[in-house]
Design brief:
The chain has a single domain, classed as Purple Acid Phosphatase, chain A, domain 2, CATH 3.60.21.10. Strand 2, helix 1 and strand 3 form a beta-alpha-beta unit. The relative contact order is 0.18. Helix 5 packs parallel to helix 6. It has a seven-stranded mixed beta sheet with strand order 1-6-7-8-9-11-10. The protein is of the alpha/beta class. The chain is built from seven helices and twelve strands.
């Protein structure tokens, strides 16, 4: 997919997670007032609360009313976009959002090929509910990391820049503020290994509501926690010089 040129010389990315709409609707509406139309909007999961699929289009209406249209929106699922409602969410949002559930897309934005890999991510330890209700969940968590690694490798061949968009945390650094002993239920060291090995340009995640450190580096990779309850705002990133064009 190709999107038109923004007049600025760097790419403007907005990212957010954990709106849990309508739970944090007021905070989200106020945060949107701080921002203008981006080149790319990334939604890192738990955009709706407790499987409320019908709320997703309402959330998009709020975004469109403030930021307009004409820019790509790419999302991954979070743990509160329950597996059983994901087909409904996908059907409801259709062409308004590209939801990547262990898939990738390449967008051409103002001459830069941006390869985005989307996944919910994994946990080091399944919750008690997951152990009781999802057979083979440990193996599933391990498989997701392997899958993400393979997708990053594949997209590297056809992209100028790579983004890993995920819900669960991939490192402890962006979980500071939480009890570090709870990291096993916040994220996965397997994904840390994926990032360290594959070195995507940017990793966006959410899920960690109480972090006080929202940015980290894993090698050359920039990792950002964009959970709305933690950051209190949408996260704005201004990155990557756009190609110089002859006038």
């Amino acid at each position: 997919m190709t999107y038109p040129q923004n007049s600025a010389d760097k790419m403007k990315i907005l990212a957010v997670a954990d709106v849990h709409y309508p739970r944090f609707e007021k905070k989200f509406r106020l945060a949107l007032e701080n921002h203008q139309t981006p080149d790319l909007l990334l939604l890192a999961g738990d955009m709706v609360n407790r499987g409320e699929a019908d709320a997703y289009p309402e959330l998009l209406d709020i975004i469109q009313d403030r930021l307009g249209t004409g820019f790509p929106i790419v999302a991954c699922f979070g743990n509160e976009e329950y597996a059983e409602v994901r087909p409904k969410i996908t059907s409801l949002v259709k062409e308004r959002v590209t939801i990547l559930d262990e898939k990738f897309i390449v967008l051409v934005i103002d001459g830069i090929k941006i390869g985005i890999v989307g996944t919910q991510g994994s946990l080091d330890k399944p919750t008690s509910w997951q152990r009781s209700n999802i057979p083979g969940i440990k193996e599933e968590f391990a498989r997701r990391a392997v899958r993400a690694s393979g997708l990053l490798q594949k997209v590297s061949e056809i992209s100028d820049k790579r983004i890993l968009l995920m819900h669960h945390a991939p490192c402890t650094e962006t979980c500071e503020g939480e009890d570090i002993r709870s990291f096993a239920w916040l994220g996965s060291r397997k994904f840390y290994s994926v990032i360290k090995s594959e070195q995507p340009d940017l990793v966006i995640h959410g899920h960690v509501h109480n972090s006080t450190t929202h940015e980290a580096k894993v090698g050359a990779t920039l990792v950002r926690n964009v959970a709305l309850p933690a950051v209190g705002d949408l996260t704005k990133l201004v990155l990557w010089n756009k190609p110089i064009r002859d006038l």
